[in-house]
């Protein structure tokens, strides 16, 4: 590639003449690296221990904890030593916890600062594990110090799926946009302003924006300044909608938008029979 760039600099070739072959070669290298990425893992593994495998740094809190989505075996819940007393059952909020699957030689870090982590199960059938439809891992229920709970999938939390709203930040199930999972509460474009909040505007607060949200009672439009002591603007949307997304194909609403206010359009995907 360097010699080709020198040829362009010397006037022997043009940019268009070298760009296509260089990109093709780079794409070929990229595909080879992706296909053989396991070789890098194997080479690194010869010099470093798998996270959680050192018994002097991690202790077992609970064996046979949750189902692994890769091998269908059971993971082990471990905690980094020096994190406090062992309360068992995924308790002990002091040290960082992880799930380890020995057959797969993989470890999955759990969210920090929880009072307890426990296997996710169907509330109507305690013997039935809650399985992530994306990766088939059993989800984990996290209990916060205030008693509130939330769910995470070990695989998705470690490697958030971009096609379901994942990014580089923490990815609990509440951020996931999977259309069939009952734990997924995220919405595509959920951080995008649909329109400016009229309640906030009337009180002189120009920062309020109304976004599309999804909860256990369905989809709603609510203000980003929401909370018990803040803006309570909420519009509940029809429960007959299986999914509601921002309609990127149409952009803003011509009827409701003006030079000082943009109102984005929504697309409703209705449940069968609605």
Indicate the overall shape: flat
Structural class: alpha+beta
Provide the β-strand percentage band.
Answer: 15-25%
Number of helices: 5
Mean pLDDT over the full residue set: 84
Give the strand order, joined by hyphens, for the main sheet: 1-2-3-4
Low-confidence parts: 83-88
- Radius of gyration over alpha carbons? 25 Å
Largest sheet: 4 strands, antiparallel
Secondary-structure element sequence? HHHEEEEEEEEEHEHEEEEE
| Total beta strands | 15
Outline the structure in words.
- With 274 residues, the chain is α+β, with helices and mostly antiparallel strands.
- Helices cover 18% and strands 24% of the residues.
- It has helices at residues 2-9, 15-35, 37-45, 154-158, 198-202; strands spanning 58-62, 76-80, 97-101, 106-109, 116-119, 121-122, 125-129, 140-143, 149-152, 195-196, 209-215, 218-223, 234-236, 241-246, 266-270.
- The strands form five sheets. The chain has a four-stranded antiparallel beta sheet.
- Strand 3 and strand 4 (106-109) form a beta hairpin.
- It is flat, with a radius of gyration of 25 Å.
- The protein starts with a helix and ends with a strand.
